[in-house]
Amino acid sequence: MSLDLLLVRHGQTDWNVIRRVMGHNPIALNDVGKKQAGDLKNWLCKMEIDAVYSSPMLRAKETAQILVADRKGLSVIEEPGVAEVHYGDWVGLTFEEVRKQHGKIFSDYHSNASGVQIPGGESVKTAQKRAVDAVERMRATHKGQRVVVVSHADVIKMILLHYLDMPLDHLQALGCDNGSLSIYRFGTEWGDRLVALNYFSEADKILS
């Protein structure tokens, strides 16, 4: 089943800046995040896109709406399967607060993610499965097409790890910054392959 899967991480929010866990809270894009989405929209403007899916989270939907602006007949489809990880008791805490209050499990999340059940939330394996199931539905629906999915850093990385046949414990080995684009292409003559990772239209953003 051929498919170009364009995985977009939502633009920056104020909570990203202060490194606070957003979870499913309705946190909007800040001005930087809107510009990031706009830059990506401009970069994609000459590329035909057949469908745009988004996590139900506000920050993702805002990013997706910017991407589809000026594209007649294209609307954003909400897909719960690519929603943010259910971070449970971590939601609302800064990363440093999570580290202090949940030190062992937070450490495991970075080095042994496959075995992590987030307190009050979901397991990392469960999050990966629902995200991959969503992608498989897209593959069945959009054969030979190009699909954008706006989601969240760890969810995007979970999807990529699955299709790259890499252990979930390598979750932090992939970069996925705000406003970035990763592309996974199914069905090339060489098989399925990653063709872009954490891409920005301005290369200096990667090193900033």
Distance between the termini: 37 Å
In the sheet with the most strands, the strands line up as 3-2-4-1-5-6
Secondary structural class: alpha/beta
Q: Could you estimate the helical fraction of the residues in percent?
A: 25-40%
Mean pLDDT comes to: 95
Please, what is the CATH homologous superfamily?
A: Phosphoglycerate mutase-like
Task: Write down the CATH class.
Answer: Alpha Beta
**Segments where pLDDT lies below 50 for 5+ residues?**
203-208
> What's the CATH topology label?
Rossmann fold
- In DSSP terms (H or I, runs of 4 or more residues), the helix count works out at 8
User: Strand share of the residues?
Assistant: 15-25%
- CATH architecture descriptor: 3-Layer(aba) Sandwich
Radius of gyration using CA atoms only: 16 Å
How many independent structural domains?
1
Number of strands: 6
What is the string of SSEs from the N terminus onward?
EHHEHEHHHEHEEH
The best one-word shape is globular
For the biggest sheet, the summary is: 6 strands, mixed
Structure, described:
The chain has 208 residues and is α/β, with parallel strands linked by helices. The chain has a single domain (3-207), classed as Rossmann fold (3-Layer(aba) Sandwich), CATH 3.40.50.1240. 38% of the residues lie in helices and 18% in strands. It has a six-stranded mixed sheet, with helices on both faces. Helix 3 links the parallel strand 2 (51-54) and strand 3 (76-78). It is globular, with a radius of gyration of 16 Å.
Please describe the topology of this protein.
Elements: E1 3-9, H1 14-17, H2 31-44, E2 51-54, H3 58-68, E3 76-78, H4 95-101, H5 103-111, H6 124-141, E4 145-151, H7 153-163, E5 181-188, E6 191-199, H8 204-207
Parallel strand pairs: 1-4, 2-3, 2-4
Antiparallel strand pairs: 1-5, 5-6
